[in-house]
Structures are given as C-alpha cells and as structure tokens.
Amino acid sequence: MSGGGSTSKCARLCRLIDDSLRPYAVSVAFTLLEELDVVPMTKEKEKEILIALSQVFRQVQLWNQEFDSDSDNDSVLLLDCESGCSSGSGPHYEEIQCLSKILADLIVLLTFESRYVQHLATNVLVVVSEFVAASGRNWDAFIHLLCGCLDTAITIKLTFDSAPSPTGADDSNFGSSSFVIKLKQKLKDANWSTAASIVRVLRTILKIFNTENDVQFLTFYFDSVSSCLSNVPWDLLTQICVPPNVVQKSSGADALFHRSVFLGNFTQFLCSLVEQSYAVEAAGDSAKKRPDLQIIINFVPKLLNWCLGKQGDCVNTCILLYFRHKLLVLMIRLSFRTSLDCSILVSWLGLMHAYFSEYLQQSMTSLKAVQGDCLEGSPFLLSVSDTEVNNLCSHHVQRLAVFLFLRCSLGLISLKSDNDEKCACASQNLCLPSESNVNLECCGRKKGILELYNWLQGHLPVSIFVDHNIYLQKCIDFALSFLQLYMHEDDLLFKVLLQLFCVPFPAERWFQNLKGDLHNAKGDMLFHVSNVFNPVHLFHLFLLELHYDHQVLLDYLISKDTGISCAEYLLRCLRMVCDSWHSFVQFSVGGQNVNQSSCKKRKWDGSLFQTEKSSSSVKNDRTSTILEKECNEHKYGCKDNQTIGQRYMDAKECLLSLKISVESLHQKDLFPYNPKVLLKRLTRFQELCLRDEQNYL
C-alpha cells in the first residue's frame, strides 16, 4: 500500500468530517471564544448533530468493511507500520495535519451538554481509529494525538488556566504545536465529562484489537498512554475539593457528578490496561517489564483518596460501591500481573485497613448463603430494589476485599528477601509475644502472619483456645462460613482457595501433636492460622458444599472460566491429601453452619458429558460402600453420619466417581484438555483407599 493511497484515504475521511460536522464544531469554537459557561443546545440543534454523526458513523463503517474484505490488507498493514517505525522517519506531514483536523473537530463535540451527542461522537472516534489502522499508516500517530487530547483536557480542567503543552506537543507526531494551541482553545471550558468521553474512546479502542495479531499496534498504544499518564499533573486533583455547601447547589452537584463519572471511567480504563498489557507481554518478550504497570501501581493510593476520601461522603451509595468494586479489581489484577515488593504489599495492607476495614471486619459466621447472591457480570442488578442491590454489592465487595487482604498478607509470608534470611524469626515458631507494641518490622513474613492473626482474632477470639474440641469446631465453622461466602462466584472461589495454599501447613506433624498442651500454643500465630485454613479441612468442606456431587466438579473442570484453576486446585489438594492421609480420613464436621449449606448444584445437564456405569459396576460400588461403612464404623466406633469416617467415605465416593467420568470422556476425546496428570493423582488416591480397605477387612 503506497503512501499516496493512504493519504488519499485520510483526505477522503477528512472531507467527510469537514462537510458533515465542521459547521457544528465551528459554532462551538465561537461560543467558547465568547467565554460562555456552557455550549447552548436546543432540541432542534441536538437532532441535527445526531443525524450528522450517525451518517458519518455509518459511512466510516462501510469503508472499514471494504478494508476487511481485502484479503491482503492485514499483511500490508503490519508491513507499513513496521517500515514506518524502523526507518525512524515521521509520517507524512499532510496526513498528520489531516488527522489533527479530524480529531479537533470530533473532540470539540464532546464539550456539548448533550450526553447523546457525546456518546455518538465517541462511537465515531472509535470507528475512525479502526479506519486509520486499516488504512495502513499512522495509527500510532493517531493514538498519540488522541492521548494528547486527553492530556490537554485533564490538564486544563486541573489548572483552571492556560495549560502547559502536553509531552510531545512539538514532536513530529503532532505535526506542530499549532494543533495543541488550537485544541486548548477549543477545550477551554471542557468539563470532566469531556475527559471521561476521551477515556471511553481509548478503552474501547483497546478492547477491539486482537492482541495476537496487533501486538505492534498495542505497543504504540501503551507507549502513548504511558506518556500521557506520566505527564498529567495528577497531584492537583487531590487539591480540588467541592465544599459541602456547594454540593447542595445544582452547579456543585453537577460538577461532583461529572468528576465521579471521570474517576469511574478512568479506573475502569486502568483495569483494562493492566489486563491487556499482560497479554502484550506474553506475546512479546516476557522478560521485559512494561513501565505502564508501575505507573498504575503508583496511581493506587491516589485513586483511593480521590474516590473514597473525604469527597466520597458527597456521592451516593451506588457510586461508592462501584468505586470500591473497581478499585479492588484493579489492585487484584495488578497483584497477578506484576511482582509486588514488600513495601508495596505493606502499603496496600495499610490502604485496606483505611478504606475497606468495614468489609474485613464484617461477620462471616452469621452469613447465610443465598442462591441468588451472585452478580452477573456487574456489581449492580437493575431488576432489584436499591436496598437489595446494596446488600448484594456489599457481599461482592466483601469477597474482593477479603481476597485482596489475604493475597497481600500471604504475599508477605511467601516473599523472600535478604533481610528475611538474616531474621531469627524465619527459623522459629511465630509466637505472639506478651508485649502488644513489639517491633515487627524485622521481616515481611512476620508482618504477614501478624496481619492474618489479628484479622482472625476479630472473627475467632482467643477465648476459644480454652477447650480443644471447641477450638477445632470453631475453626471448622469459620472455615465453612468463609467458603460459603465465595461459593457463588466461581472465578473468585478458586482464586482464594489456591491462594490459601500459601499458608504454612506442616501436614501430619501438626495433626499428631494437635492434642498437646493447647494453652502453650495459645500465642502461636502460625498454629492458629494453619488450623483455620487447613487445606485438607478446606477440601473436605468444599466437597461438602457441593454435596459430594462429582458432576459439579466435572462442570468446573470443563468450564472455560474455571477449568484451569479447578484442575490446579484439585491437583494440589490430592497431593496434600495423599501426604496427610490420616488427617483426611479422620476429618469430621458438625455444628449449625453445616445446615446452612450453599447447595451448589450442577450448572447444566449436558448429555454429552454424562457417563454411565454398567449395572454390575453400580452393584459392586454399592456393595463396596456398605462394606466400607461397616469397616469404618468398627474402626472409629461410631455410626453417626456426621461423625468421623462418614465424611471420608462421601469424599472418596465423589472423587472416585469423578475419576470414572474423566476417564470416560478422555477415552472418547471429549475432555477439553489432557487430564493425564489429574487421573494419575486420582489413581494414587484410589490406591490409598484400597490400602485402607484391605487393612481393615
């Protein structure tokens, strides 16, 4: 594709925008020159602009479809971009001027008071970005210009004065500083809604590109966005505060609302950046860390202050819940996408206590799991009342907050550093000293254990250490309530279960010594944390919550969303069970929480994945189950279905049934991935069951 052809395509687009929208953009410019507060908008003018925007949108879409029909377009597109970058020469000056003019005319429409005009103008900007990308040249310049628009809009709003030129304003990618000067004049009275609209455009562009095929484009994208985020004087946003008496007025309430809309869109945009930047890393050199992630990490304390600080008292409950939800999602994604050092983890724990303490302290033992307590793709459900929405969102935010708290605390425990190796507590039991103000800065491991211990003390007070049986039952009750909290959000469920494997667990040695002097273990923080989050007990409780239905486990394993995480969890649990067999066999559970099961059932009844046993196999299984039950009753001296032995039998039947189902699907090539490792672990589990059966027959 020649440079002339590309320029002609851009010129055609420029003429379309100029003929259709420039009259309205010019009227806005004149209004701004007259220094009016808002752009006047009559119903008739709004209708005219919407019709014009719709016509432009449809026409550019048609041109994009023509590009898509060209089978050679993708290869030429990548070749042109690579040649333009590798040569070190800037794009054609005429085309840059054309893109600058297009952006200026479209961006100025975002200053209109009408939300419909703003929405349709953002859609036009998105299809224009697709057009520029498909035309084969200067997509990186377009994104650079668009980020310059965001930089200018935010900086003008923050300074309330003549804003400094954005980074790169005199760069060849902008053509000349005249673009910035004109843009600053056109956006002179832009509000936060304008900046929010530009953020939505950038986020939508990010979502429509296929990472595997467009790595080069996304690299340009991240470089431009990182430059923009680094350049904006964000500290000024902290100084902007709307006084409570102004909030009562219409203008003050509108300003606060637009500010909240921008912060919500901006936080959502950062979440998307974190998610997509990981995909770019995976497609390129994974050894290189993208600088934009560190920029976003530095944003976290600022965002929490802006969204949940003093001004948070002025916004309504739904907006606050949305802020909490998105901020927690952002922090969780960052924790998975990059290695957080000790200082960041400690800082985040402090932020958790400052902004999410109510969710960390919220009781779980009194929580009754409800089948409808789930959030389908969003923290808000429009079909229920505000009170019900707030309750559902509260449970959702609690799940996120507790998970992030555990991830930070356990991250400190798992983190190794030079200081930890020199610290004496690294090789000693972490016992809680009698002095409450002891210095615990010696290592991250101790800090993490202390955070977990103090959090558990709010749910399981020290008084439960008095009696051994009561202590164990209370630990199991809390673990069950904890598990029930996550049962209806499958993605979080397996994330938190896998995270808890970071809890130090000395396996059989703890079980053998558990009935020792409990009073002496009263101050042992590691002892307490390990007993509450005992992975063998949690696995038993997990199967209990599924009512030992192996088909539910099968649904998890073949699901696109949970298949990998569920398989990883089962593999780690089966290894732990085989290493801690005595603890697994003797597990028992009782108490009131058992009757408040979440009743997790199969998501669907897919006939493709149903497996059948022969009548003889079923008969043998039933005979074996009866025989094993009698052996266990003799072995443990009990016949109560809720006592020792029965839970082992239920878990055994569930896991062996799962093994049969997975084997059957694998033999028919119906299992979505290779389950050989899982089958190997299940076979080992079966061998241990047979060994016990032979020992007690």
How would you summarize the topology of this molecule?
Layout: H1 3-33, H2 43-69, H3 73-86, H4 93-107, H5 115-135, H6 139-159, H7 178-186, H8 192-208, H9 215-231, H10 235-239, H11 244-247, H12 250-283, H13 291-308, H14 317-337, H15 342-355, H16 357-361, H17 386-414, H18 418-422, H19 444-459, H20 468-486, H21 490-499, H22 508-512, H23 525-532, H24 535-545, H25 550-558, H26 563-579, H27 581-585, H28 615-636, H29 646-667, H30 676-696
Rg from alpha-carbon coordinates: 30 Å
Helix content: 55-70%
Number of helices: 30
Mean pLDDT: 74
Taken from the alpha-carbon principal axes, the silhouette is elongated
- How many beta-strand runs? 0
Structural class: mainly alpha
Query: Strand content of the residues, in percent?
Result: under 5%
Helix-strand sequence: HHHHHHHHHHHHHHHHHHHHHHHHHHHHHH
**Describe the biggest sheet?**
none
The CA-CA distance between the termini, in Å, is: 80 Å
Low-confidence stretches: 29-38, 71-91, 161-176, 242-248, 366-385, 426-441, 507-512, 514-521, 603-642
InterPro entries: Lines_C, LINES_N, Protein_Lines
Pfam families: LINES_C (PF14695), LINES_N (PF14694)
Domain Protein Lines N-terminal: 465-586
Domain Protein Lines C-terminal: 651-687
What does this structure look like?
By secondary structure, the protein is mainly α. Helix content is 68%, strand content 0%. Among the domains are: 1-233, no CATH class; 550-697, no CATH class. Helix 25 (550-558) crosses helix 29 (646-667). The radius of gyration is 30 Å and the shape is elongated.
